Each structure stands twice: as structure tokens, then as C-alpha cells.
Amino acid sequence: MSLPDLSKAADAVQAQVRQRFAVLASKIDNQATPPAELAESYGDMGRLFMVAEYLDAAEPCFANAATLAARDMRWPY
User: Fold this and answer.
1) Closest Cα partner for 59 from 35, 74, 43, 36?
2) What local confidence, expressed as pLDDT, does residue 2 receive?
3) Phi/psi class of residue 49: alpha, beta or left (left: φ > 0; alpha: ψ in -120 to 50)?
4) Which residues, in sequence order, are CB contacts of 40 under 8 Å at separation 6+?
5) How many Å apart are CA 26 and CA 31, to the nearest integer?
6) Extended strands (E) in the chain
7) Given phi > 0 = left and psi -120 to 50 = alpha, else beta, which region is 2?
8) Residues 64/39, Cβ–Cβ less than 8 Å
9) Residue 20 near residue 48, CB atoms below 8 Å
10) For each of the chain's 77 residues, which pLDDT tens digit applies?
11) Do residues 42 and 61 touch, judged by C-beta distance below 8 A?
12) Which pLDDT belongs to residue 73?
């Protein structure tokens, strides 16, 4: 997973996306991260991408969240 081109976003949006992405990346790298926690981080990243109108980047986040937390009905929608 990689960040989309953020060059057209406001500086505050870029900073928030990069910070949230760093949190997600650290959880992905940590083998001890529980699946539910990782799903929540993917979902948070997906929601942020949606708000910032990076819809193509949001889709895989929600798909990963749905895979990791299949019973959580937030992610398929």
C-alpha cells in the first residue's frame, strides 16, 4: 500500500494523511498487532482518504479492514 499523490491537498491535510499512514504502516509491520486493531487502522485510513476525496486509495483500505474484521459491518459499505 502506498500514499496517493498529495501534492494538491492543503498542507494540513497532507500532514494528517501522512501521520495516519505512518501509524497504519507501523501496525502492518508489527506482527503482534491484533487483527481487530489493524482492521480499525485500515478503516480509519480509508475514512480519511474518503474525506480527502482520494476514493481510489480508500477502497483497498476498506477491503483490508473487511477481510480482517469480517463481522464488522462498517467496512463492506
Assistant:
1) 43
2) 87
3) alpha
4) 65, 69
5) 10
6) none
7) beta
8) yes
9) yes
10) 789 999 999 999 999 999 999 999 999 999 999 999 999 999 999 999 999 999 999 999 999 999 999 888 888 77
11) yes
12) 86
Residue 77, SS3? Answer: coil
The three cell numbers locating residue 58? 480508500
Q: Which amino acid is at 46?
A: G
The pLDDT value given to residue 76 = 77
Between the CA of residue 26 and those of 19, 20, 33, 38, 61, what are the distances in Å?
11, 10, 9, 10, 15
* Number of residues written out for the chain: 77
User: For residue 46, what pLDDT is reported?
Assistant: 95
Task: Catalogue the long-range contacts made by 27-36 (C-beta closer than 8 Å, 24 or more residues apart).
Answer: 28/1, 35/68, 35/69, 36/68, 36/69
C-beta of residue 76 within 8 angstroms of C-beta of residue 56: no
Helix (H, G, I), strand (E, B) or coil at 5: coil
